[in-house]
Write a structure and sequence with these properties.
7 helices, three-stranded antiparallel sheet, alpha+beta, 2 domains, Nucleotidyltransferase, domain 5, 10 strands, five-stranded mixed sheet, globular
Length: about 240
Amino acid sequence: MASKKYYAVLRGKKPGIYKVWTGGEGAQVQVMGFPGARYKGFEKLEDAEAFMAGKDSVSSPGSSAAGKKKVRPYEDAGLDPLAYPIHVFSDGGAIGNPGPGGYGSVVVMEDGSRQEFSGGFSLTTNNRMELLGAIIGLEAVKDAGVPILLTSDSRYLVQGIEKKWARGWRARGWKKSDGSQALNPDLWKRLLDLLDHMDVRFQWVKGHSGHLENERCDALAQSAARGSSLPPDTGYKGKE
């Protein structure tokens, strides 16, 4: 994926277009800890300017101009970010699936402070790393006692929780409704055990779409997957 050259801060401490993400003059300091911040990275200046003007939209392949679908910024995906003092972002993947894999998590606290986590395994799957990324992020804030918003590009993870599929699997002894075995019960159990005592809402975003924290998690996961002397994923049973 091409690197971003412009970072548009539509809602932040000092809205504007920035050429760097980190550092005192970067966009990150303008949005971290700012409730309801809206920002996005772009490769072209004109796209960043369109976002600032409220014209950030895309159309599906083959659609006409009249049929363009407005894309909601991830911070406005039907949820009120102000209701969640803590934000967790996570991602994960495996090279070859199955293959060497890694996860990445970013935790942003109410005061704007942040922590990053990552790890990798010699043989695992995309879904296992997506789950583990969320778990690691939530374990870092499990005693916070406040609502948490977790953002991921994994439909497997988000729908598994928001549609209560995983809770159904657990209630049936890790069986799906058709009687087949649910995959990754060790990680789903670990995640549900956390959620039983936390107030967490899961939100899906499209991967590789300019979401800065999702891209950061992706970079952490990819770097971990390419590490040396990776340990085995003892929970992977070779069934996916």
